[in-house]
């Protein structure tokens, strides 16, 4: 994975070069991408079988998949002390070729250094779980 530092020059050119050898390239730069440049960049990323992940600060590139999440709960914290043991998130998934889904997941500590995701409940009636525990 590569996270592009926006202060290092043309972040779109950097993303294009990184896609040659890195599977996941993350772009978080307040930039507006012209349509022709977006097509060129996405074609190169697809040709290299890479993934371009970008935040909502990037304008002009249409995402195939959009993930939005918000925390809905924490456990493990007492009155002014303790450690976060679990975080619950509500996740909304939408995209070009899928129906929107909303669900809840939990990220929990599994020991000294491990973590595990688990599916809690699906908010969209009849929808399949978005993330399954592995």
- Estimated structural class: alpha/beta
Which radius of gyration do the C-alpha atoms yield?
A: 18 Å
Helix content: 10-25%
Unreliable stretches (pLDDT < 50, length at least 5) are 124-134
Instruction: Give the overall shape, derived from the CA principal axes.
Output: elongated
Overview of the molecule:
The chain has 134 residues and is of the alpha/beta class. It has helices at residues 11-18, 35-47, and strands spanning 2-3, 24-27, 31-32, 51-54, 58-59, 65-77, 82-95, 98-109, 115-122. 16% of the residues lie in helices and 46% in strands. It has a four-stranded antiparallel β-sheet with strand order 6-7-8-9, with no helix packed on it. A three-stranded parallel β-sheet has the order 1-2-4, with helices on one face. A two-stranded parallel sheet has the order 3-5. The two termini are 22 Å apart.
Brief overview:
Helices cover 16% and strands 46% of the residues. With 134 residues, it is α/β, with parallel strands linked by helices.
Annotation keywords:
elongated, about 130 residues, single chain, alpha/beta, 3-stranded parallel sheet, 2 helices, 4-stranded antiparallel sheet, 9 strands
Q: Secondary-structure map with pairings?
A:
Layout: E1 2-3, H1 11-18, E2 24-27, E3 31-32, H2 35-47, E4 51-54, E5 58-59, E6 65-77, E7 82-95, E8 98-109, E9 115-122
Parallel strand pairs: 1-2, 2-4, 3-5
Antiparallel strand pairs: 6-7, 7-8, 8-9
């Amino acid at each position: 994975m590569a996270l592009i530092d926006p202060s290092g020059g043309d972040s779109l050119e950097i993303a294009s070069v990184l896609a040659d050898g890195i599977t996941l390239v993350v772009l978080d730069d307040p930039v507006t991408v012209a349509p022709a440049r977006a097509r060129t960049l996405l074609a190169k990323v697809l040709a290299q079988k890479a993934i371009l992940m970008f935040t909502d600060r990037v304008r002009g590139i249409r995402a195939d998949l959009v993930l939005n999440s918000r925390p809905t709960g924490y456990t493990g914290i007492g009155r002014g002390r303790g450690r976060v043991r679990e975080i619950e998130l509500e996740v909304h998934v939408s995209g070009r070729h899928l129906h929107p889904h909303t669900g809840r997941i939990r990220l929990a500590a599994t020991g000294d250094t491990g973590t595990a995701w688990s599916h809690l409940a699906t908010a969209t009636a009849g929808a399949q779980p978005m993330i399954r525990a592995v």
